[in-house]
Amino acid sequence: MTESLIGRNLLAGNEPDPAGDAGHRDHPPRVGFFTDTSVCIGCKACEVACKEWNAIPEDGLELTGMSYDNTQGLGASTWRHVAFIEQRKPLGNAEAGVAHEDGVAQEAGVAREDGLAHEDGDATDLRWLMASDVCKHCTHAACLDVCPTGALFRTEFGTVVVQEDVCNGCGYCVPACPYGVIDQRKEDGRVWKCTMCYDRLGAGQEPACAKACPTQSIQFGPLDELRARADERVRQLHEIGVTDARLYGRDPDDGVGGDGAFFLLLDEPEVYGLPPDPVVTTRDLPSMWRHAGVAALTLLGGLAAVFAAHGRPEGKR
Amino acid sequence: MGVRTWIKEWPVYRQFTDGDRLSRGAAAMSATTRGLRPRTETADKVVKSVCPYCAVGCAQNVYVKDDKVVQIEGDPDSPVSRGRLCPKGSASLQLTTGDARRYEVLYRRPHGTDWERLDLDTAMDMVVDRILETRRRTWEWEADGKRVNRTLGIASLGGATLDNEENYLIKKLFTALGIIQVENQARVCHSSTVAGLGTTFGRGGATTFLQDLQNADCIIIEGSNFAECHPVGFQWVMEAKARGATVIHVDPRFTRTSALADLHVPIRAGSDIAFLGGMINYVLSNEADFREFVLEYTNAAAIVSEEFEDTEDLDGVFSGLHEDTRHYDVTTWQYEGTEVQAASGERDSLYEERTGNGQSVAASGRSESHGSGGPAISGEARRDPTLTHPRCVYQILKRHFARYTPEMVEETCGIPRETFLRVCRTLVENSGRDRTSEFVYAVGWTQHTMGAQFIRAASILQLLLGNMGRPGGGIQALRGHASIQGSSDIPTLYNLLPGYIPMPHAHEHEDLDTFVEAVRTDKGYWSNMRAYAVSLLKAYFGEAATADNDYCFGHLPRLTGSHSTYETVQAQLDGTCKGYFLLGENPAVGSANGRMQRLGMANLDWLVVRDFSLIESATWWKDGPEIETGELRTEDIATEVFFFPAAAHTEKAGSFTNTNRMLQWHFAAKEPDGDARSDLWFMYHLGRRIKERLAGSADPMDRPLLDLAWDYPTEGTIAEPNAEAILAEISGSHVGGRPLDGYDQLRDDGSTSCGCWIYCGVHADGVNQAARRKPYTEQDWMALEWGWAWPANRRILYNRCSADPEGKPWSERKALVWWDAEQGRWTGHDIPDYVADRPPSYRPPEGATGVEAISGVDPFIMQADGKAWLYAPAGLTDGPLPTHYEPQDSPVRNPLYEGQQRNPVRQVFSRPENRFHPGPGEKGAEVFPYVVTTYRLTEHFTAGGMTRWSPYLAELQPAFFCEVSPELAAERSLEHGGWAHLVTARGVVEARVLVTERMTPLTVGGRTVHQIGLPYHWGSNGYTTGDSANDLSAVALDPNAHIQEVKALSADIRPGRRPRGPAVPRLLAEYHRRAGITEETGMEVRG
Amino acid sequence: MSESDVTKDGIRGERPDREALVGKGMPRRRKGRRGERAMVPEAKFTSYYGKPVLNPPTWEPLDIAGYFFLGGLAGAGSVLAAGAQLTGRRSTARALKISSLVAITGSAAALVHDLGRPERFANMLRVLKPTSPMSVGSWLLAAYGPAAGAAAVLDVTGFLPRLGRAATAGAAALGPAVAAYTAVLAADTAVPAWHGGYRELPFVFVGSAAAAASGMALITSPARENAPARSAAVLGVALETAAAKVMERRLGLVGETYRQGRAGRLMRAAEALSVLGAAGAALGGRRRTTAVLSGAALLAASACTRFGVFHAGTQSAEDPKYTVVPQRQRLEAAG
After folding, report:
1. ipTM score assigned to the predicted complex
2. Any chain A CB within 8 A of the CB of B256?
3. What percentage of chain A exceeds 90 in pLDDT?
4. pLDDT at B581 > cutoff 70
5. How far is the CA of B340 from the CAs of B844, B972, C267, in angstroms?
6. Confidence band (pLDDT; 50, 70, 90) for B736?
7. Span B105-183+487-657+661-758: which CATH code?
């Protein structure tokens, strides 16, 4: 059975119709987010709009020293997260006008994405990358597939949503997510993540974050349109010299079958805290079941052999 | 439910019967999920509103269910915001419905150690008692032998966060009470804008509107952190970028704005005049100016008096300096053979000359009336159209700025020559006939001891390049409060009456006629001053105002000097000012020298605070920093404190005027809960109670109150005044009759009434024009049917400039307004800012006055000469041209003028709590070696009263921090993430350290200058707390606008936390000793 | 310069703000070094301030590692019990049936205890998802639990012997699945130390389960019946150890999470204890004391293995290096 799932792209690979294959008939086109980080101004309106709409609790007043990022990452109570990265690299042909001595930043213990990126750039180069991260609404969503209760489900819009009234807090989806998105709210017990404002979509409204975004860094719409727009955008940026621009999660043939929420990045994904080549864990599930089956049979056979070898206890003979 | 149903609902069953074999979608859905509906859909009603934070004026939709606000989000119809909101706007549900709001009246009795509850009625009566008692006790009929009929015993502060209608009632009631110390955030944010723009162009508002940024070829953002402080407005910069515009950000810090710019130019804080002056010099010395524009539309050709001497001649000062009184006699700055009076600024500086019977008061105490001014001029200035006359403005300009070479810019600003020249070239290439560039600034330019001159410098540059009044051009002043423009237009400012009519100064025997004579102009729209003033008096005093009694002009209290908020604080310290209203402003955190603010309040008899939460200005008596240090003891403080909870923008109707002079109406979504009330309610009922109390009084000091027109309809269970009725009064009507359409209908015979002449027409036809919300998608890009902008719904001011002298657009790609010869009218995308049917060929007949005197090529219809002023012969107190001086506290010697370090006529007050630093080269100067610049973050709002209590915003920026470069961190052993404390002569604060390469050391005059960034949002109360940056700053003011210098000040920084308790004053004393600070330090005029 | 015009007829050439040409820079640039920069070799490992890419499991180690351990003990125990019963080792059979019942009850309790909303544990049977090892496991437990329970209760009470035998056989048939599926449960995550070992982990788990059940048998059964258990112990330990070694090698860089920190200590303890237990059982298992001590060592070893695997997983999820580097290598290998 599992083989046939892969054959039908139900576990991995290009999947043109995730909603239809999840039993939604006559469903609307698949929608998604295209987050173009090149126009992000790091205002965090998305974080707040999301929290306001979804009544998510405040989750920590910690000054992290991670540039202007005091949110740190996605979690049960953060469904949009804006990353801030200060780098000694130019942004295309833009100029920062700064001039620094070499090596002085490390001495002061500035937290950087690593201790090395520094050496890459000139002392006059500086760019400040900002990027709003969110649940990727994977085509092949590990969180959904491993959920034992059906709390996580594929909506008619092709998005992935947790049903608050079903989740029993088993926590399985948490380590299953290759992006570190979904998480458990300890005091509540259940897991939470971006719903792409499922309730709003149902009423023909766009998600709160995309609606608020002052510079259209977060674009919402039918995924096909967004993908075409994103391709054009990368071409445009390359043309003006922003050769770092690349799309992330856009490819329907990648390890998760493409993301429902994909990004235009200006550096490697890991710089933003994203995995460079995520693969949905359930792609290997058939093989896992096979190996487990062999192991189980080994156990059964081995123990049977042991008993066969030993026969009845001597005392009874 | 039966077993069958139960089984059929069981997803396992569904998954095998319903085509969702893996139970991933349809089968797994619960009934709850299937029934989900957004609360935006299930709401009972959607109320149209406007965001209460910055002045971009983003439209909001407020969703109400069961009389509760359940959601607030952007209104996609708005042409300004297009439905988008920044994090603060997105948090407005939490602002209006969150736990932090208080709903009960609180009272702290004299010497009390805690709050007590009071019921609203009692509290209102108690406040009435306090007002009347203090007023009676401190009433002055005369000062120095001149009639003033006023009280200096009561003051108020706040208004920029309030509606226009609320500001109107505040000013009206307090004026009738004789209270003159009425001030608001505009004083500390953008007052210098009005003086700078108003003097140059005739009106003090931003000359363009946000959407027009899309049409710019180049945008220079300087003195503004646009992306962070006005994120939603920034979309129009992005739109310009999408079309190919170049964006340059000049700023001490690399900010979120710089991150999106094509070029960031780090500049030493406070040196912008040198930078802009350098650009002016570049334009002039390369003859790169747009000559036809300059010749026709500016005063470049005017000949200046022989008596004028420039800073070049007098080593850094202009002619007319009176060192003893710290002021300039401006008469030598005039045009040859004429007397010119300014559009704004010193409106009656020539009172004596013009009225022949007055007596000038000291210039330092003059008002800086600003905004929609109009210069008076008598006699035509002599002009030299060849621009070669050595005393013509053009030549004076050339000489004045010749010193501002690229080398000087580098030495002063720390900007490499090559970078500077690239900016110059880019700007010049993107200006002229076919291209336009726009300047954007905010409080990075205004908050200096030369704030008005910063803005003048940009204005001169834009005029030389022909970038005014044209699409994609102009000067965009970004203002920071929802209605700070409105609270300047309908001012809660001591020196102004509505519509920039100056508050009268005390002069002997002054009556309405002499007042008008002193401030009116012979030419242009200010010639109708009498009609504006009489109509205002009719709105104030109604039937009581008659021709026989000078329309109650005598009821107005008189000024005798500057009564700005900073003078008020000193009056509090001196015991003159005894009662204080804080109406949505938090001076303990937001005003310069926080300690001085608090000490002033500790010397009051009574204080009324109206706000959402218990801000620092409400609780300083029990937990302020001075309690901690032991300088004050709660039990010793005699101040009575009343706290009244305020209504949110969702709980009242009214209009905000956004940063581009556009009024937008917001409707009430519900009544406020508990004792929370709007300021409209508070002012109206306060006035009503006062009038009831005084009914029948024969005391002449009560006459203005008895005559006051104070009859407004109320509605609802709380008797809220009808805000639209007040808007109608502001807009004006024929007495007892039809609403007015516009200010040209105003009459000086008492037949019209108008609460603010520049707002005349906002209620034309009895329709609330500010409430118009035609979606931008159904209009052209100007969106003239959304809201209403003053004047006369024009969006780009001085747009006659977009056409050449013959009335044709300068360029086919920059067409805005043009002369339609067939129809005999001006026409175009915008409403022409000009006499609608006046042909370009029109030349006024000899002796023409008023509007008739405006020539067909005079685009600046508020100016007495119809021209924009490259050189300001009047209006400003510190010079006709911008000159670079160093900030009051600067570690750098003024590279331009060896003999003049600081603005000679800056306003400085040496008091024990307001000491200054030694100048460079003086003994002890090295004690404060670094430059601090204060600023705002996207995630917080001004003094924090509307954001620090919001968990969603607090978590985004949870602590007060300072930004330093790695080099400075190394120099002072500061550790990223650790603590540092900063010290000035005024105070010490501690902050967490962010070491970042976004801060870059500058090489200035051969040495390294380090700058430190300090966001000023924090205070000791709220959800996120921290020290206040303003405890470091000093009261050192621009002499034109009395705005404080907080964008550049010197300081020391040390690793680790600050001392606590009594060790704080000891540390400061030690710094004073080391730096040799005395009461003389930093007070010099020359040198 | 802007490419859009404001003509008399309106604006021409509008572009939406999302197309802002960010990074276009100034018209002329001083030095064109873009090309060279592209030549700069890719940086080494980078991360976002050292923050994990993944969210580590929120599971309580005691609950979930305990659940793995007890499930293994129960599952392998049922097989041993059936074998013992078939070969006439009555006391061993009974003891192991009881221990399986106790273990599976404890295992289920641990699972429920770890739920954020324990009252909703029944939702586990809301759907049947082959893609979810936990769903499969829940249904498996739903079948195995009653079988193991019936086997034990009927054995002790002596009621319905035929049904008892059937239950014993059923439990023995499901037991290996119970012991093995938890490996899939762990492996079917993004946790590098688990997922990367999905081929070997089931063998580690069943080997460990066999060792634990053997250990239980050694403790609870008389010496004369424990010969199969002693062999099973050796077999289990051998399987577990071999599989673990292969897994670590395959994991490459991630394999170090099994050697470092708490996981490393647990895995080393597990190895020592299992070798000790197996040797003791093999060499001195006929002596009751040695048998009990060896059995205890085997049980402890099995527990240590499960906790070690658990913590290795957590460690591998908490350090972004284990997520980024293997993926980066994979990308580079793919070109």
Report:
1. 0.95
2. yes
3. 87
4. yes
5. 19, 53, 92
6. confident
7. 3.40.50.740
